[in-house]
Amino acid sequence: MSFLPENGGSGSPDELLAGLNEPQREAVLENSAPLLVLAGAGSGKTRVITTKIAWCIRALGIAPWKILAVTFTNKAAGEMRDRVLAMVPDANPQDFMIRTFHSFGAWFLRRHGELLGLNSGFTIYDDEDSLSLLASAYPEFKKKELSPYMKKIAAAKDRGITAGASLGFVKDKRLPEMFDAYQRRLHAIGNVDFADLIGRSIELLDAHPDIADKMRNRFRVILVDEYQDSNPAQFELLARLVGSDTILCVVGDDDQSIYRFRGAEIKNILSFPEKYPGTRIIKLEQNYRSTGNILAVAGAVISHNTSRHEKTLWTDNPNGQKPLLTYVDDDKAEARLIGQMISQDKNYRETAILYRTNAQSMNFELVLPRMGIPVKVIGSLRFYEREEVKDGLALVSLALNHRDEVSFRRMANKPTRGLGASGMDKLLELATKHDGDLFQTMDDALESGLLSGKAAQGITAFRHMFDEALALLDSGDNVGFASVLVEKSGLLAYYRQMDEKNETETKEGNLGALINMFAEYEKGREGIIACLENISLDPTTLGVEGKDDGNYVKLITMHNTKGLEFDRVFVTGLEDGLFPGKMDDEDDMEEERRLFYVAVTRARETLVLTSARRRMIWGRVSYQLQSPFIDEIPSGLLTVRGNRPGRGVYGWTSGSAGGSGSFPGSFPGVFSGASARGGGYGERTYGENGYGNRGGSLDEKRARSRRYGDGTYVRRKDSGTSGVFSDPSLAVAMAARVEKKKAEAEPVQDNEKRYDVGQRVLSHDYGMGEVVKAEDDRTGRQVIDVVFETGRKARFISRFAVLDKIGE
Description:
Enzyme class: isomerase
Keywords: ATP-binding, DNA-binding, Helicase, Hydrolase, Isomerase, Nucleotide-binding
CATH architecture of the largest domain: 3-Layer(aba) Sandwich
CATH superfamily of the largest domain: P-loop containing nucleotide triphosphate hydrolases
Radius of gyration: 30 Å
Number of domains: 5
Structural class: alpha/beta
Pfam family, one: UvrD-helicase
Binding site for ATP: 39-46
């Protein structure tokens, strides 16, 4: 086998190591102990992983098929495979096992799933399919009522909890019953949901030690990328694949663990050395992406987290310009100002606007195009989520799995075939006599006269359509197979008519794209199964998405930016309650800091942070406090423009930032010469003029970041705008509170902030309320329950609660 390193060369395995820094080199060569590679943002982790795979093949003589590399997206897996092939060009691409966790689970269950009663043609249900299946077991409930239960079932599976397990800790006793009923139906149909790809693989490995031994003997090397994003079930699957002599390497960054809401468990990476004794930890701390000043801001905030492996990013890149923090009057001014900045050089392709919630994109979508700036929302409705595409896929799935009740329910009467609800119930009841085989059920119903009239005619044509389509598929005609299903089901005509009514729709074209896609796979059933699997595991590969020149500003939620980088990044909405959002505990706060770290480290050269004094939220004007993250950035690291918000007793005030008018000269060629609407956009260095450089301990700074400014604003009950208090006595009480704050020489320490039951409190979000419960959690932090006059109930961690005590 010949060898061609990425940068060329004579072919010696040692040339693989050329250009690696010392920690990267050590990570490639360490094969004697479990290895945890802590790879900071932009530190070249993908190069380390791919070089390590190539090194195992070229230097250690390990066959590619004995190396399992796991990452979290099919796109990343494909890129990894391409880079390894560039280093080992004579290797057979089919020999590589570079997959996602779920793709590995699908591969494993396709080969051994019959031991669990699965067949190789099982369908992988998405969220909508799973909800439909649960709804079929509980017809007395509406889908929207069942949706929270389905989410809890999926979350339980991600945590490694199986149906039938003790759920005594669950308050809603209906959940265990629904979990069991859902899983029984899923098993009866012979399909799996997304979480089952992991959970049922674990089940199989536990039930069949011989298969587990076979897997451990096969995979001599196991590498896991983005390990900080793994969930407890994936943690357990990995543990079952690792043998006593397995070369194990996991790569990740606990500072970039931002998917807890999807089930990711940061403890997996934090506790790795305890799980695998003798672990060696190598830190990749040199960043090749961002300027020094950008890294300084990111590092300043993330260093406040306690649940992390200690590390500090550094770079040989120039320090560059200081990141800009700009205060604006409201969310519309935020969009206009960013538009003016972008208009200076029109570098749309390398510009991204990041926000915490999807709702924040609206102003950018409206304002920027009016300024002649092209934009695109990244992560909007994807091709496979569109109704017409899901309909086509349901027909294909039913053709391959005759027990797929969810797909049958979706398509048996779409477009209408005269099969009403009673007819559907009759068919599904009859299906129990045929072990769930819906094709045999339709045949029986037609022969016995169970269906008559229009329903019989419709189901007859529906049933014959599948025979015709499957005959084409078995002859190797993938396109013919899909075309018959889409056309003879009436689906194509149904959506063509919709397109004619709405000229902006392209539903017919989407069905055509779906049909064309099947032509790209191996002819026959195996190819269609592979296509369906790829769709389930990597929906971004579908349709025509992404086939553009990219010359537009990217609008992206912060959670969708992992793996991306841009020359210029705007991190917007740095306001308490928005970013970070309202936190239940310290773990939530640390996750939000990690999200800030990820957002900031997407920027190569230019970083702009924005904070609005007021923002329209749910149709009401909300007056905002700046994000506490801003107070966690040391003085001197930011250039600040605009007026820092503060609150007066009867309205909104702001402290002067000094200067006005032009954009800062520290951003030459990008912002210079533009004027800001509304005035007041002066420039100063963060920490000057008494802001951000007030000294004191970290706890003091945190306390200050959570308190009102020079006064307190209270929103009227009947209005979302500023104005007087609804109760005049509150104005007196709050004025006294303001004076007391001004007289305090030192801020209140976080750990001294406690509330008593019966204490009257004031929230700028919810109004007047009373503490009805106060207790300490297991970590000693006080947790309080407050009932507000509006009837709303809320729970707060005392140290984070922005609540003023009334009567003190």
